[in-house]
Sequence to fold (305 residues):
Amino acid sequence: MRNKRLILALTGAVLCGLLAVMLVTRYLASVQQYARDLNNVVVAKTEIPVGAKITVEQLALLPIPNGSAPEGAFRKLEDAVDRVAIMPIGVREPITSLKLAPVGTESGLSAVIPPGFRALTVKVDEVVGVSGFVMPGSYVDVVAVILPVAAAQSAQGPISKIVLQNIKVLASGAKLDSPSDQREPTHVNAVTLLVTPDQAEKLVLAANESKLQLVMRNFGDQEDSQTSGANKGTLLSGESVRLAPSPTSERVAEAKPAAAPKPKVRRVTFEAPREERPAPPPPVSRNSIELIEGAKRRDVEIPNN
Fold:
């Protein structure tokens, strides 16, 4: 019996050892497979602003699994050196071809202008620049105040009209990137807008013939607003009250139908009918006497007459 227990203990120890060896072997194989799957990717060692030409001191190599490497990533440092960034690149962020201008592009404003677009600078002051909150990356509408050409309309005075919509701000003064704290205003004398050639012609004419005003848009608002303009007649006609929406996406809440009120459920309980049992018959009175016979006692019933 003792030998049998010893054999069972040895057998269990051997099985546990084999299981541990198998698990360690599988773990080491997975580590080796992970190490073989790693490959170096070029990342930013420091923050790279928009329009800056990348130097080798700003880059580093970081091992990343091949399946996790972003599309267009660079494997060698020399492939990204002397390229110009067209968007801000953060620390340890992979450098990809989508974030860089074509080879041979010089640093500066020209690197961030897409093909088919133009950069046009507009003079602003504290009022026109929305108190300094118009920063690179903002989207604005351009409002012009101009005197109509027609004689009938010119009698009503100048008209204010939105002439350009959803225009991106490329630069604020001489800065191509937004400040770290966008809650603090930045007062500049000019902003550079990204426009098409047709929009550039309208903007130059509006700047020469009238005073411009920039109206800031929400970043996600891409709606095309068609307005008829405002003059003295429409200004004095007044306008009904409109509630100011919250900064959240209230349109989603408006589009979502209101939930129908839940019907009131009336609970009805059913009780099983109670079984009526007949009342027990009254006890029958009987006449009896107690008879003692020695040590025994017994009752003797006397029949009724």
